[in-house]
Specification:
By secondary structure, the protein is of the alpha+beta class. The protein is built from three helices and eight strands, in the order E-H-E-E-E-H-E-H-E-E-E. The protein binds carboxymethyldethia coenzyme *A and cobalt (II) ion. The site of cobalt (II) ion has 6 residues, from strand 1 and strand 5. Keywords: Isomerase, Metal-binding.
Length: about 150
């Protein structure tokens, strides 16, 4: 079962400037930031709200660290904006297999490491009415985090 919107992924040209916009305009704080080499991004996770399945909903701000990364390619074509949506589930493996069985291309054979030690996979946007869609199972202790100092 997919039980929440885990995050909205937003591609940006300058992570620090974009984080500052979200803080000063909306009051959202960064709870976590990291570089994910495999995905080719520097990212910040802004916690928006907890959810009734025990998880949370986030804004994921993404700045590319390599010109050949998916986010860099997308930015070059579209400019800044909403890059993907992610649904949360307790069982990313089972959901991915079930959705694959419905004829939707799942991009990874096995889920990979995502933000905050989550496990993630992606569905091809061309099979999802133009929306790059991520499936996420969070690490158990994810929501215990406090905002980062700034
Ligand atoms: N949303 C909607 N459509 C998208 C898209 C996106 N984010 N990215 C690409 N597309 C569309 C393109 O517009 C293009 O459509 P047209 O053929 O009509 O022009 C088509 O998909 C192919 O796009 P492309 O630019 O040629 O890009 P690639 O095929 O090389 O890669 C994809 C597309 C989805 C396979 C690649 O972006 C990918 O592997 N994404 C998953 C990984 C990822 O995005 N990581 C960053 C986030 C990490 C995280 O969330 O933690
Ligand atoms: Co994401």
């Amino acid at each position: 079962m997919l039980t929440r919107i885990d995050h909205i992924g937003i591609a940006c040209l300058d992570l620090d400037t974009t984080v500052e916009f979200y803080r000063t305009t909306y009051g959202f704080e960064v709870y976590h930031s990291e570089i994910n080499e495999e995905q080719g991004v520097r990212e910040a996770m802004l916690r928006i709200n907890g959810t009734d399945d025990g998880g949370a909903t986030w804004i994921q701000l993404l700045e590319p660290i390599r010109d050949d990364s998916p986010v860099a390619k997308w930015l070059a074509k579209n400019g800044e904006g909403v890059h993907h949506i992610a649904f949360g589930t307790a069982d990313v493996d089972g959901e991915a297999e079930s959705i694959r069985g419905k004829g939707v291309r799942v991009l990874y054979d096995q889920p990979r490491r995502g933000s905050m030690d989550s496990r993630i996979t992606f569905l091809h946007p061309k099979d999802c009415h133009g929306v790059l869609t991520e499936l996420v199972t969070s690490a158990p202790n994810e929501t215990a985090a406090e905002p980062e100092a700034h």
